């Protein structure tokens, strides 16, 4: 089963009660998961399966179906079921709806998050930073080039998972947005220190270029060993004001090449119309094309 596709009634975006269980044959029918979660995403906690270590289940609490905000509980599912299997996206194996809970089944990534990898190993050298940046952008390119493009809206080290030391995948679509020809995103959502300036303006919409700024922040996280703006602001209010005005992470640390700084200049362009796409960066950026 190369992808999970679902037929859903027009009522299915209004209530989990109308969803029917849809699982890949790869998931054991008698699945059992651990009692204690080993991770947590934007919308729920993540558990290992006891009887098949290839899979994890994300448990999302859902509101009473009569609640007017219930559609938000299905955001991640509605994104995941539009995706085919892709080498840079954590695989999705289906879902099981319960009365007040939704179970999402996904692949287990052996080495955990990029954030944890950096915490354990410190700042990455530029060769590994380049390798991971290319793979992150490949995932972003896939999302942005779908028929109805998807803005991830929360790209950061915590939402990048490592299969091994040389392969990674994007995860956690709990705040993602599917963009049609007629709509852009407007929500004040995502991790503030990784968000693009335009996402802080309540009067303007934004598009997939916001993810490129977040990619730049994630590359900063890899190269510096710290989160962007970690010691820049006294509080979140100050941070929102500063980033909203276009303040960039401080990239003036030692052993940072000119090509890497130029890469950041592109990602941290305040005007999103002047920011490159993921495809532009993959095809043309000197830092990414550089051979060690």
Automatic annotation (TrEMBL):
Molecular-function annotations in GO: ATP binding; protein serine/threonine kinase activity
SUPFAM superfamilies noted in UniProt: Protein kinase-like (PK-like)
Keyword Nucleus among record annotations: no
Protein kinase domain segment(s): 32-288
Matching InterPro entries: Kinase-like_dom_sf, Prot_kinase_dom, Ser/Thr_kinase_AS
Entry keyword set: ATP-binding, Kinase, Nucleotide-binding, Serine/threonine-protein kinase, Transferase
Region Disordered, residue ranges: 1-21
Pfam family, one: Pkinase
PANTHER family hit by this protein: MITOGEN-ACTIVATED PROTEIN KINASE KINASE KINASE 19-RELATED, SERINE/THREONINE PROTEIN KINASE
Name assigned to this protein: Uncharacterized protein LOC106057925
Species assigned in the record: Biomphalaria glabrata
Lineage of the organism: Eukaryota, Metazoa, Spiralia, Lophotrochozoa, Mollusca
